[in-house]
């Protein structure tokens, strides 16, 4: 491997996923993993198998499907974690066990209640155990950003001697400033005697907004792996954003002198997918993937752009896979046209279900007239989340709000193939009345702990996307609904969440029978 290649280690499905309000389903995680594989990430960390049976199952499913990226799983420096990581990963074409233990005095004393000597011993034992399973073992010293440099060097040297092939120096709490973090990496590169036997990796959090700068400074000081997530999602303020470091390396290649193997044209697509499935909107001014990232507003800027794009554009939108909108899909368009538009946006048929998408497209085209590419994208990834196997399906919904009177709603659904309806009077508004009617039908009290409405597209005919998080029996479930009418998208979101509850009950029943 050439020394100017930067290994991109994506942790969207581990560090990113652990920050979500409601966890992703196995199907959603696999969908993201396949998109990351197409993006060309070298390593994808996809979970923490010992943490739950759901996490174990998703790591195993992804390990089974991914062929062109290395699949990694996290484990504490504890035997049962390492064994679980191996059990989940062993079906993969290529895999890595990632084991970690905290190294800062604060974590060692307050959290682990051990001495630093014990911690080094545990790190060595963990790496050795993982090496019995694979020759690709990564070791991380958690909170390295606040660990004294002598201790970092000591634990890194011991981990490499024990067999670690990648050593990761995380700035777990996003505390470091670029010079400071660059200097830590410089010291590691120069003071650890066996450092040439391992790749030095960086994992930065964004608490002070330094994650991208810190990662790039680390690269300038010799790090050769960057850990990052799509859209920068992750614990608290998130992790280094993959799209930012990759595009910085591409755009400033002459200055940095390194490269990645990422297929940058996939960036926009995977960013949209992660945002939708994770219920994590992207701020419009977010670097690279925000909706304004390539928009030019002021007259002076627009004038400059018309004369020469380089005046205000340092990279072209096409590099990240952005295509110009086409406005010509209507109810008269056939399946081939819909498929063609999806293909132009870079989606292959395995990414979505054409029959379902076409059906949803026709319904929308009847209401809206013209259907835009962003509508198609939203339909493909939101409506598709409602599966044929769902027990509960929305049939009819009407709601009424007369000023000064309580709202009312009538809802008819199919529950296990049977038509059932309910009317609710006295809601705080049409959405509340609709939710009461749905809960009456299913005989379930769920608590709506989060409700978010976003317009997809522009104008009065825009689709409204509702994302909700519901709490039921101490667990959280995400529901998403899309429609031109807000009450309908709200109802669809609740029905989506209730179907997720039903699915989890089915899994629990199956497990209980085993
Ligand atoms: O932030 C961190 O330190 C981590 C480790 C587990 C690598 O996520
Ligand atoms: Zn982290």
Description:
Pathway: Amino-acid biosynthesis; L-leucine biosynthesis; L-leucine from 3-methyl-2-oxobutanoate: step 1/4. Keywords: Acyltransferase, Amino-acid biosynthesis, Branched-chain amino acid biosynthesis, Cytoplasm, Leucine biosynthesis, Manganese, Metal-binding, Transferase. The protein is of the alpha/beta class. The chain has helices at 12-16, 26-39, 53-65, 79-89, 105-112, 116-131, 149-162, 178-191, 211-220, 242-251, 253-256, 267-278, 299-307, 335-344, 354-368, 373-382, 430-442, 486-513; strands at 7-10, 43-45, 70-76, 95-102, 137-142, 166-171, 199-204, 225-228, 392-400, 407-415, 418-427, 447-456, 463-472, 475-483. The strands form three sheets. An eight-stranded parallel beta barrel has the order 1-2-3-4-5-6-7-8, surrounded by nine helices. The chain has a three-stranded antiparallel sheet with strand order 9-10-11. Strands 12-13-14 form a three-stranded antiparallel sheet. Strand 3 (70-76), helix 4 (79-89) and strand 4 (95-102) form a beta-alpha-beta unit. The longest helix is centred in the last third of the chain and has 28 residues, at 486-513. It is globular. 3-methyl-2-oxobutanoic acid is lined by residues 15, 74, 100, 140, 142, 168, 170, 172, 203, 205.
Q: What fraction strand? A: 15-25%
Secondary structure: number of strands? 14
What ranges have pLDDT less than 50 throughout 5 or more consecutive residues?
none
Strand order, sheet with most strands: 1-2-3-4-5-6-7-8
Percent in helix? 40-55%
Average of per-residue pLDDT values: 91
Describe the sheet with the most strands.
Answer: 8 strands, parallel, barrel
Shape: globular
User: With helices defined by DSSP (H or I, 4 residues minimum), what is the helix count?
Assistant: 18
Structural class: alpha/beta
N-to-C terminal Cα separation, in Å?
Answer: 47 Å
Named once each, the bound ligands are: 3-methyl-2-oxobutanoic acid, zinc ion
C-alpha-based Rg, rounded: 25 Å
